[in-house]
Each structure stands twice: as structure tokens, then as C-alpha cells.
Write the C-alpha cells for this entry.
Amino acid sequence: MANRPALRDHRLRIMEGVLAWEGEIGNARVRKLFGLQPVQASRLLGEFRELMGECIVEDGRAKVLKLASPESFETDISLEEYARHTLAGEGANPHVIDARVDLTEVQPTVFAVLRKASLTKTGVAISYASMTNPEFVERTVFPHSIIHIGRRWHVRAWCARRQDFRDFTLGRIRSALPVTDITPKTIDDDEAWQEVVMVELIAHRRLSPQQQEVVRGENFGGLEGRRLPIRACLVQYVIQDIRAAVNPEREIPPEFQIEVVNPAQLKRVLF
């Protein structure tokens, strides 16, 4: 197990998260993260390299720092924290607490390999288990997007085994190894990704008028309802995450406080 130094500087901690979850970090990435000039970014990278010591090595050809031993490196930076910092940059408010619970354990090495493959449009050999096939199966996938919906992280990829675009839950991937093959299908070929459907929502019919007003104020800005444009392949996940009733006669309050107005139109994109 690689010894991980304590990084007090907030920016250095963000850089550790990038290194752990992306597998590498360089001058361009640091400039984008913090809005620095090249010289400033080089100075910060030098400090980071000195503090990380033997945990990292320099890839002179790619001009990036990489983990010396990705499999043994341990970090306390969760995927959630990494995403929050890399999406929002600096300026996290210490008085705002993220108390969400995510039971899914995603391996940093798996995430890094999938992310890089989506950028380079190459393949990944994964070992994957599902509820349909609980035994781990080896397959080659070609990722184009990594998605975070609710409590789960998914990768959207062309599956060579199924000859179709599929969603793979990152927590169910045991291993991921790069494959040099170029993807036979791109994001433009993913019809369910390119298609956007409208999900229409209202307060659940079983709520009292007063309760419906509360739901409207909380979720719809006080309006009667809301229409959400969602990629067809993500509709089911979004509906599950917001706990919207597709069958309001069976899915009732208090568990369900929102209902889908147009389930018949969405039937073909629901599981």
C-alpha cells in the first residue's frame, strides 16, 4: 500500500483526487482546474510532486504525472468529492455539508481507464456482473460517456458482445484493462443517447390539494407541473431517482409524491 501524504492545501487535495480518479495530471489539467497561467501551474505541480514523493512518477512523453502503483495507492477522496471539485472548481463552502450516502464502491483504477477510453475512443476489457448474469463475464466495451444519476455511476458504451449500446454500473465492474482497438461505434451512432424525450411531471393525484401545493412549490417552482427533456436511455434512471410514479394507482404517497403524466409515450424507453 502506497503511503499517502497529508495535503493541507485545498488545491493539492483536488489534484490528488484528479490523480487518483483519472490516473494522471499535467499542466493543462491544472490550468483548467484553477484558472492558472502555465508558470503558476508548473509551480503548483512541482509542489505536488515533492509532497507526493514516491507515490508518483513522471511520464516525460505525455508530460503528466502518474501514480507509480495505481493498484496499491489508497486515497480518502471519494468519487463524489472528486466530481464535485472537478465540476465546480475551487470555492467549496465548508458550511455546506453533502450528507448523501452512496453505497456503491467504484475503483479509481476502473474509473480512470474508462474515462481515458472515452476520450481516446478506444476499448476496455471489463469483468462485469449483473442481476441477469451474476457470474462475472469478460467483455470488451467502448465507452463514450460516464454518467452519475442518483446513487449510481454508469458508463454508456458499445458492447462488442451484445453488439449494442448498453449501460454498465461502475460498482459492478471488477476489473478494467485498456484495449487499443478503436471503437466501431461512436456517440453519434447511439440513437437512444441522441434522442431526447419529454417527461411530464405533476404532483401525485392521491395527495390532498394542500399537499400538492407543497410539492409544486418544492419541485416545480409553484407551477402546475414540469417538463423534463431527458436522453431516452436515461429516462428510467431519472424516474427512479426522483421517485416519480409511472403507475399512480399502485405507486402511491408517501413514497411517491410526483407522478409521470405521459407514461404511455415513454413505455418504449422504460425497462
